[in-house]
């Protein structure tokens, strides 16, 4: 399982995706969040990761850790449909490392 040091190492606008608490990178597909929480401290963030069973994304921006329950789907269309339904701003494309806005 990821530890708090990994959370503390995140730079501004940096993030990571976890599966069963371990960092993952995929070659294809799209990552989409279904719900999430904002955390003010790394300790709060690691607790949220544990609550999501280690299957989530963590993003750090403007002093806030965003922890989102997320999943990987095969197509951009699927990801955008889920993202819109869950009020997400964007989805992440693994192949090119790009965002698509909902």
Major sheet characteristics: 7 strands, antiparallel
Coarse morphology: globular
Structural class: alpha+beta
Structural Rg: 13 Å
What count of helical segments does DSSP give? 3
Unreliable residue stretches: none
- Mean pLDDT over all positions: 95
Could you outline the blueprint of secondary structure elements for this entry?
Layout: H1 4-8, E1 14-19, E2 22-24, E3 30-39, H2 42-51, E4 56-61, E5 64-73, H3 76-85, E6 90-93, E7 98-101
Antiparallel strand pairs: 1-2, 1-4, 3-5, 3-6, 4-5, 6-7
Structural summary, described in words:
With 102 residues, the protein is of the alpha+beta class. It has helices at 4-8, 42-51, 76-85, and strands at residues 14-19, 22-24, 30-39, 56-61, 64-73, 90-93, 98-101.
Short description:
By secondary structure, the protein is of the alpha+beta class.
Features:
globular; alpha+beta; seven-stranded antiparallel beta sheet; 3 helices
